Structures are given as C-alpha cells and as structure tokens.
C-alpha cells in the first residue's frame, strides 16, 4: 500500500502565505494534522466560515491556542483582511507556534473558488 501512495503527487508543503488551493489540496490529500483558525468575531464566523475552521477571535487567540493546539501543528489562519490575518499569524509565531500560514483571501477567496463553507445558526429558545 505504501508504494501506491508514491505514485500520486504529494501536496505542497506549508508556506508562510498559502492560497486556498494549497489548503484544499492538503485537505483532499487527507492530511488531518492541521488546524484552520478563523480569527474574526463570532458573528462573522457564524455567518460563514471555511469548512472545518474553528473560531478563535483575535482577542482570545493566544489563550485558546495554548489550551488546545500543539506548538508544532500546521496552522492556517484567516481574518477579515490579509493584514489582520498576518497580524494573527505573527502573534502565534511570537508565542512559539512553529508552523503558521496566512490563508490569503480568507473565507471570501475560499467561497469564490467554489469550496464548501459552513454556517452556524443559533436556535431561539
């Protein structure tokens, strides 16, 4: 079985800045050892987010990351703008996270490429 995987091209390695196609390629390849982090506020996250992303608003980012993420895990970070994404990625790197990539274009680029987005709906009591 191992020889069979050698016949197929391996996805691109993690870069400091990734295109949505790079992330989708890794997801399609079946590399689960990565986390997609949406640092926008919860309302924006609930409205729509990259499928499989977790919400870690920037104000809670370091606290939540340290509680749940390994320092050597591949992290893809996106926000409302690439500038905000870069800021969040730099914060994570400064805290010791070794493998952080800014997902260029965020959820808008993901959706524009035709990739699946999720919505979180609140139910009224």
Explain this structure.
This protein is of the alpha/beta class and 125 residues long. It has a single domain, classed as Oxidized Rhodanese, domain 1, CATH 3.40.250. Helix content is 38%, strand content 18%. It has six helices and seven strands, in the order H-E-H-E-H-E-E-H-E-H-E-H-E. It has a five-stranded parallel sheet with strand order 1-6-5-2-4. Strands 3-7 form a two-stranded antiparallel ribbon. Strand 5, helix 5 and strand 6 form a beta-alpha-beta unit. The longest helix is centred in the last third of the chain and has 13 residues. The protein is globular, with a radius of gyration of 15 Å. The mean pLDDT is 88.
Topology record:
Elements: H1 2-5, E1 17-18, H2 20-29, E2 34-38, H3 42-47, E3 49-50, E4 54-55, H4 61-68, E5 74-78, H5 82-94, E6 99-103, H6 106-112, E7 117-118
Parallel strand pairs: 1-6, 2-4, 2-5, 5-6
Antiparallel strand pairs: 3-7
- Low-pLDDT segments: none
Tell me about the biggest sheet? 5 strands, parallel
Terminal CA distance reads: 51 Å
Q: How are the strands ordered across the major sheet?
A: 1-6-5-2-4
Q: Overall 3D geometry?
A: globular
Q: Could you say how many structural domains there are in total?
A: 1
Rg from Cα: 15 Å
Name the CATH homologous superfamily: Rhodanese-like domain
By secondary-structure content and strand pairing, the structural class works out as alpha/beta
Order of helices and strands: HEHEHEEHEHEHE
Average pLDDT for all residues: 88
What is the fold named in CATH at topology level?
Oxidized Rhodanese, domain 1
Question: Roughly what percent helix?
Answer: 25-40%
Total count of helical runs of at least 4 residues: 6
């Amino acid at each position: 079985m191992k020889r069979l995987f050698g016949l197929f091209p391996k996805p691109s390695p993690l870069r400091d800045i990734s295109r949505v196609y790079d992330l989708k390629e890794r997801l399609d390849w079946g590399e689960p050892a990565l986390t997609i982090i949406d640092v926008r506020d919860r309302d924006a996250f609930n409205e729509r987010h990259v499928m499989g992303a977790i919400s870690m608003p920037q104000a809670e980012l370091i606290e939540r990351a340290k509680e749940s993420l390994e320092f050597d895990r591949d992290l893809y970070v996106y926000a409302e703008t690439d500038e905000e994404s870069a800021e969040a990625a730099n914060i994570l790197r400064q805290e010791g996270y070794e493998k952080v990539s800014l997902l260029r274009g965020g959820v808008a680029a993901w959706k524009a490429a035709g990739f699946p987005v999720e919505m979180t709906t609140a139910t009224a009591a």
